[in-house]
Amino acid sequence: MPENCGRTFDEALFSGYLDGALVQGDAQRVQVHLEDCASCRALVDELSSVREATISSTFTTPADHEWSEAPRSTASGMARGLGWPLLGAWAILVAGVGLWEAWQGADDLLDRLILVGGVGGVSLLFLSALLDRLRARKSDRYQEVHK
After folding, report:
1. Residue 31: pLDDT above 90?
2. Which of 29, 31, 80, 141 is the most buried (most CB within 10 A)?
3. Contacts 24+ apart (CB under 8 A), 38-47
4. What is the pLDDT of residues 125-140, one digit of tens each?
5. DSSP secondary structure of 86-115
6. How far, in Å, are 44, 46, 56, 62, 84 from residue 53 at the CA level?
7. Helix residue spans in the chain (DSSP H)
8. Residue 8 CB-density burial (10 A; 0-12 exposed, 13-18 middle, 19+ buried)
9. What is the mean pLDDT of residues 51-77?
């Protein structure tokens, strides 16, 4: 920004202005400033040309064998299908044994409350995120998009 430029807002508003994403007050403030400032008009013109070049760019879509992360063989698919549940069961078992040992080793009520509160809090946060993800999965617009 030149020293004589009287801009009182962040440069990021220029991008929002070009995208038409600003609220009316911000859009008017940017527009009024652009009427008076040649250097900012040049910057907006440059941003506009970059935006147009980006929008009009095309790219080749990778071939299916380069894109997919799905298992490539039946054996690989079965191993992945059995591996994740086995890993999850192991993690639950280790966490349960660890919690039991910590509970048995706790000497007073405060230690037990801290233990239960911490594990309970983390468990509830995980459950909350899992439930939200499962609920969003039903209406996920991009669920069928593979490329």
Report:
1. yes
2. 29
3. 39/1, 39/2, 39/5, 40/1, 40/5, 40/7, 40/14, 43/11, 43/14, 44/14, 44/17, 44/18, 47/14, 47/15, 47/18
4. 988 998 988 888 888 7
5. HHHHHHHHHHHHHHHHHHHH--SHHHHHHH
6. 14, 11, 5, 22, 44
7. 12-19, 24-36, 38-56, 64-67, 74-105, 109-138
8. exposed
9. 80
Residue 124 tokens, joined: 């509830």
CA atoms within 13 A on the CB side of 62: 8
Domain locations in the chain as residue ranges: 12-56, 90-141
- Report whether 44 contacts 12 (CB < 8 A): no
Token pair for 140: 């996920």
Q: In the structure encoding, which two tokens stand for residue 11, read together?
A: 């440069």
> Is the predicted pLDDT of residue 101 greater than 60, yes or no?
yes
Tokens coding 72:
């490539």
Instruction: Yes or no: say if 5 and 40 are a contact pair by the CB < 8 Å rule.
Output: yes
